[in-house]
Amino acid sequence: MACFPVVEELVQELQKEKIVHLDETPWYEKGCFKWLWVAISKRVAVFCIGTRKKEELLKLITSAFIGWLVTDGYLAYRSYERRQRCLAHLIRKAIALSGAVDEKSAKDGRLAFTRAQGAH
Fold first, then answer.
1. Which of 36, 65, 70, 84 has the fewest CB atoms within 10 Å, i.e. the most exposed one?
2. Residue 65 backbone phi and psi in degrees, to 5
3. What pLDDT does 5 receive?
4. Would residue 87 be called left, alpha or beta, if left means φ above 0 and alpha means ψ between -120 and 50 degrees?
């Protein structure tokens, strides 16, 4: 609670950024299953512990944010119009697909991986 004013100020700063990377990961706190959200730009990093509901996202990225949001494929992010899929997440998906039993799927995964490597 003591840092709430600082976090609120950082969230306001985040809204002014051109590009914000956003991700969430499981977080156990005192044996309770929660989610750790992180929103990072070139200048600002905000961490938030809560549920995995879209409301947590809206605490970090408000309607004031008009920049680009870089995310994984989580459904909560998909309604944001200026969203780009994270290259690292796409590469992981391509690697996984390249190990598919179905040869066509595996070939598609290898091709996606090769193309993603050229995107760096």
1. 84
2. -75, 125
3. 81
4. alpha
Cβ-contact 50, 36 below 8 angstroms: no
Token reading at 35: 């989610």
**Which residues lie below 8 Å from residue 79, measured CB to CB, with a gap of 6+?**
none
Residue whose token pair is 């991986």: 113
Nearest to 16 by CA among 58, 55, 44, 53: 44
Give the three-class secondary structure for 69. strand
Residue 99 backbone phi and psi in degrees, to 5: -95, 10
Over residues 21-46, mean pLDDT: 93
Would you state the pLDDT for residue 1?
56
Structure tokens at 79: 């309604």
Task: For 112, list phi and psi in degrees, rounded to 5.
Answer: -60, -40
Domains and CATH numbers, the chain: 1-85 (3.30.720), 86-120 (no CATH)
**Cα distance between residue 97 and residue 22, in whole Å:** 24
Provide the edge-to-edge strand list for the sheet that holds 83-85: 45-50, 32-40, 19-29, 68-71, 83-85
Task: Determine if the pTM surpasses 0.85.
Answer: no
